[in-house]
Amino acid sequence: MTEDTISENMLDIRKKSFEDRLDYYVSSRINEQRNWYFTKANDNKKLARQWFIGLISTQAIVVILLLLEIAYELYFLPTAAIIVAGSSILSWTQIKRFQDLTTSYTLTAHEIGILKSQSFEVIDDKSLSDFVKDAENAFSREHTQWVARKDKH
Predict the structure, then answer these.
(1) Residue at 7 is within a domain
(2) What is each CA distance from 136 to 16, 120, 123, 139, in whole angstroms?
(3) What are the DSSP calls for the chain, one per residue?
(4) Which of 42, 84, 108, 115 might form a disulfide with 142, Cβ 3.0–4.6 angstroms?
(5) Torsion angle, alpha carbons of 96, 30, 16, 11, to 10
(6) 32-56: buried (b, 16+ CB within 10 Å) or exposed (e) per residue?
(7) Residue 140 lies in a domain
(8) In whole angstroms, what is the distance from residue 31 CA to residue 24 CA?
(9) How many angstroms separate the CA atoms of 92 and 100, rounded?
(10) What pLDDT was estimated at residue 153?
(11) How many domains does the chain have?
């Protein structure tokens, strides 16, 4: 089944007044996108913190195990396995780039917030069209940067 490019809902919105269309776009697109980016930034920040704690924890365990090996000549401890686990955590955090994503998503959410404040300057259909174009370009720009970052790795 194929869907129409322009849905019934889109046609209904197009029939609304200028003010209603602006309000709809701000609430249904700008706010939704800003919330999505803030949520993703917070999620990545939490993940970065959790993986960092995991890395520090494994490194602390390695130090303790090494001290035990030296002090008590206990060479059967799983020191090597913990070192591998720590290295794996470090590699994983580098691959996922949680901190970079946090920064990128936060910046985009901030940019969307600036865009939202510009909605108060929209006074007619022409400026609404320009406003929508600028907003959609901002969303597209972040997505393009995400794809470029993803393709690098």
Answers:
(1) no
(2) 21, 17, 19, 5
(3) -PPPSS-HHHHHHHTS-HHHHHHHHIIIIIHHHHHHHHHHHHHHHHHHHHHHHHHHHHHHHHHHHHHHHHHH--TTS-HHHHHHHHHHHHHHHHHHTHHHHHHHHHHHHHHHHHHHHHGGG--SHHHHHHHHHHHHHHHHHHHHHHHHHHHH-
(4) 108
(5) -10
(6) ebbeebbebbeebbebbeebeebbe
(7) yes
(8) 10
(9) 14
(10) 56
(11) 1
Total Cβ atoms within 10 A of residue 3 = 6
Residue 4 within a domain = no
Query: Model pTM greater than 0.85?
Result: no
Residue 136 within any structural domain of the chain? yes
The pLDDT of residue 2 is: 58
The residue to which tokens 């269309």 are assigned: 21
**What confidence tens digit (pLDDT) does each residue in 34-92 have?**
999 999 999 999 999 999 999 999 999 999 999 999 999 998 999 999 999 999 999 99
Domain holding 148, by residue range, is 18-152
Confidence band, pLDDT 50/70/90 cuts, at residue 3: low
